[in-house]
Amino acid sequence: LLLAIGGALITVSMAIAVVYFGSWVRGLSAYGYLGAFIISILGGATIIIPVPMLAVVFALGAVMEHTWLVGLSAAAGELVGAIIIYLTGYGSGTALRSSNRGFFQKAYNKLLSLMERRASITLFILSAVINPFFYPAALAAGALRYGIKKYFLICFVGKIIKTMTVVYAGFFGLKPLFNALGISL
Fold it and tell me: CA 179 to CA 158: how far, in whole Å?
């Protein structure tokens, strides 16, 4: 119960901070690798408020010297956010499973069923591609008491694939565009 309350408070606090400090969040890109890490924590832990995480990481891929380090920083940040979501699900698992009202609850119950059968592959796929379904899958992993070490490893590998794809898309997409416009990076 304390984990659920703590995880929910952290998520809500981050969402409020993103709204309240919106210009500061957008300015994180000026901090390079640390900025990629921090904005990825915010983007990885909140689904309520959209954080321009992927846009910042995409742009940093074109302007930072070590593109691969931007990807690793962003993946590590997203993993911190994913752990917060997992802990929220871990602490509120019974409450999440027992409710049967509404469309979202039915969708969550279907995802929970999928996670019971194929948790590892589901987590890997949902963490490796850009999609809105990772958040409920991470909640479900916590609710099902999926092993934290396995969760950590699977999600980290998936997040590396996702962030490296975004970073190198920025590197190969924006860098030539800037060069064509005569802007040297």
Answer: 31
Buried b (16+ CB within 10 A) or exposed e, 107-130: ebeebbeebeeebeebbbbbbbee
pTM score: 0.75
pLDDT at res. 183: 64
Round to whole Å and give the CA distance between 12 and 27.
21
pLDDT, position 53: 80
Quick: pLDDT tens for 96-128.
666 666 776 777 788 888 888 999 999 999 999
Nearest to 11 by CA among 55, 41, 54: 41
Angstrom CA distances, 151 to 8, 52, 55, 117, 159, stand at 19, 25, 26, 15, 12
